[in-house]
Amino acid sequence: MTESQERKAAVIRGLMNRCPNCGEGKLLTGYLTISPECENCKAPLGNYRAADGPAFFTMTIMLLLLIPLIGFTWVLFRPSPLTLLLIVGLITTLLTLVLLRIVKGAFIGYLWSHQEQDPGA
Closest Cα partner for 38 from 10, 18, 13? Predict the structure, then answer.
């Protein structure tokens, strides 16, 4: 595989919560905790710190989805403003929580493919 194909594969493996190195072990334990090392290939996954990157990208994606979500909800259902706030708030919260885990996995896969380890690790 070429270098760009390996990087793409690492990001896709991260999206699927798999080790970017082997694709077998779990990348995240719990909700957002990075495994210290892969249980299959023993790659040091804990050295790749995501910091605020996944949160930034998740917020950006959700803000881009928020206006169409409000518009479609208003046009399709014509709810009262309070009901609209509850519907959009619930959908936004659930999508953000799901998307944050997916984005963090992809972000760790990207960091792994570029060997961007935490200098303090």
Answer: 18
- Residue 21's identity, in one-letter code, is N
| 30 has a pLDDT exceeding 60 | yes
- Please give the Cα distance from 8 to 113 (Å, whole number): 8
Instruction: Work out the widest C-alpha separation in the chain, in whole angstroms.
Output: 55
The model's pTM: 0.88
The CA-CA-CA angle for residues 79, 80, 83, to 5°, reads 75
**How far is 28 from 12, CA to CA, in rounded Å?**
14
Bridge partner list, 26: 18
For CA atoms 77, 80, 83, 87, the dihedral sign is positive
User: Taking a C-beta distance cutoff of 8 angstroms, is the pair 108, 45 a contact?
Assistant: yes
